[in-house]
Amino acid sequence: MNKRAANGGGGGGGEGCGLLERLPNSIINEILGKLELETLCSAACVSRTLRSSASQVLSSLTTLDLSSFSPDVQTLEHILHRCSALKRVTVDCLRLGDSSVRSFLGEQIEELNLLKGSSLSYQVLFSIGRKCPNLRFVFNLVQSLCIKIRGSELDASGFRSSVLSVPNTVKVLKLQPLLIEDAIGFINDLPYGRNALNDSFDLSIPFYPLSPRFTLQKLSLVVDVISDELTISISNFVPLLVELDLEDRPCSEPQLPKDLTNSGLQRLGSCQHLIALSLIRSKLNCQVYFKAVNDMGMFLLSESCKGLQAVRLGGFSKVSDAGFAAILHSCRNLKKFEVRNASLISDLAFLNGALPSLVDMKLWSCSLITSESVNELASSSDLEVLDLSGCRSIADSCLSRVTSLHRLTTLNIGGSDITDGGLAIIGRGNSPITHLCLSCCKRVTDKGIALLFSGGGKIREKLLALDVGYIPGISDKAIFTIAEFAPSVTELCIRYCYSVTDASLEILAAERRFEDGNKLVLRRLDLCSCIGLSVKSYELLKKPFFSGLKWLGVGRTQLTSKGMAIFTEIREERPWLTLCLGGCEMGCHDGWQFHRADCYQEGLS
Predict the structure, then answer these.
(1) Cis peptide before 544 (omega within 30 of 0)
(2) Of 358, 359, 361, 350, which Cα lies nearest the Cα of 322?
(3) pTM of this prediction?
(4) Residue 558 phi, psi dihedral angles, 5° rounding
(5) pLDDT tens track for 540-555
(6) What does 487-535 look like in DSSP terms, one character per residue?
(7) Residues 575-591 as b or e (16 or more Cβ within 10 Å = b)
(8) 209: preceding bond cis by omega (within 30 degrees)
(9) Residues 6+ apart with CB under 8 A from 85
(10) By C-alpha distance, which of 508, 515, 580 is closest to 548?
(11) Which residue range or ranges hold the F-box domain (predicted)?
(12) CA–CA separation, 377 vs 388, rounded Å?
């Protein structure tokens, strides 16, 4: 088919439309069925034939994912009235209320993900429980079901009664944020534990995750404080969990007995089917740690949960190399291991004994970790993700081993001591790196970015996401290099790069074509605190520039001093675009890192 035919002929009745009309509907529908929703809608505008086929595809869709943008009420209704066969729904609810969610609930819904639910109340749970009796797989109210929403108190009894309306068939439940008392009350009232642990139930019977006999398999809670009482409730009432994710965000130093201790950690050992465990103490509200858990707690956990395949531990300041090594050496099926803010973990945790065959390794802000640990970790040929963010003793010397990993796709060395020479090593490497973070690498300059893309390695053709934020040595020259030699980059973070000016925005907006015919089409661009951008640069954010952009961060720049009018105009032109006027990180961490006022969306109520 020639180009004219592919474009529908341009005239509505020309040769292109005739060719489309002669194609079997089944072939057209099969092709359109593989497109993203935005592309499908664009294709429907090309010709009557494609419009008809697009309508058929929409009417037969069983899965709908609207997580890539924040639809308003009108847009959601426009999409949903064409989708009559939906069973699995994911919706970004940043601009939606309870009534919008109720509009697509029904007996046919089996999987449900409601994201960024800042405007949803706990009352929506009653509707879900009543209208979706067949909900069986995903029930994920990210940051929307809460006891305290933006400082508005709800009584605990109302919360518990609403939770109990959730269908018993739910297998995945994520609730945040909760007060610890409400979380414990919710778990103690769960029907899952009572149904599973009836008098005739035998824990010696092998567990099969997909067996209809069991319901809740994955539980994720964010509370104010994780305590022994919480872990005891979990082990008593939902001991058949496969995955457990607990995070707390204390506002002050937790005091015993309302804190997690070795005993509470040991109780999780009775959840013998766990394959994934996450225990994170966040420093979002204040600098706090799990001070009542030490190496003994990790020993007890490692001995009773040897089947763990994924472990995430954050804020365990009293656990040393011995405790972390116990997890690594006891859990031989371990594939994912993450440690955050652990001041006592050092190279010794990885140098004594054989490590499991890790796929995903993350060490965040572990100041004693050096290049020796990285060299040891690089011995795992299956490694796909290596995240060393904030490990400031990592240097260039380990990068040759790292970039020889043939499966490595994500590398985060933000805040490390690497130099331009280290970027030259990465640029020559054979790793198919798609995501690279260099944020806060103070010794990196424009020259390093040039070396990264001129080394002849795989990264030049594979790289999709690049973060060079918080680097004083980055200027327009580096952005010119990226625009000219990184054809695959779709996400670019240059926040707090003070030397970046309008010239960088101009080159990025140009969407230059490369020798292979591809062009740089950015999906996400973070310009937060790029104070070198002038007010006039907002013209580059309007059509026809940056046609593929889905997320744009412009907080703390001169652009925001222009007022909301220019952003209203941009949003009217691009309803798919999320404009972040606050200081949030790329993508706004699923829409909850910031206050609603920080992320401007047209039509927000």
Answers:
(1) yes
(2) 350
(3) 0.80
(4) -65, -15
(5) 998 889 988 889 999 8
(6) TT--EEE-TT-TB--HHHHHHHHT--B-TTS-B---SEEE-TT-TTS-G
(7) ebbbbbbbebbbbbeeb
(8) no
(9) 59, 60, 61, 62, 108
(10) 508
(11) 23-63
(12) 11
Over residues 114-161, the pLDDT tens digits come to 877 767 776 777 788 788 877 765 444 433 333 223 333 333 344 444
Distance CA 395, CA 197 (A): 52
Residue matched to tokens 């929506």: 124
Tokens 């933006």 sit at which residue?
150
**Tokens 């919480």 belong to residue:** 230
What residues of the chain score a pLDDT lower than 70? 1-21, 118, 122, 136-169, 190-215, 353, 511-520, 587-605
Contact predicate 113/95, CB 8 Å: no
Check: CB of residue 274 under 8 Å from CB of residue 302: no
CA distance 494 to 529: 9
Cα separation values, 260 from 90, 115, 189, 264, 338, Å? 34, 29, 22, 6, 19
Q: Which residue has the tokens 């539980």?
A: 219
* Residue 318: half-sphere exposure toward Cβ, Cα within 13 Å: 14
Query: Can you tell me the distance from the alpha carbon of 572 to that of 602, in angstroms, rounded to the nearest whole number?
Result: 7
- The tokens of 301 are what? 């956990």
For residue 252, the tally of other CB atoms under 10 A from its CB is 10
Written as six digits, the tokens of 410 are 């994500």
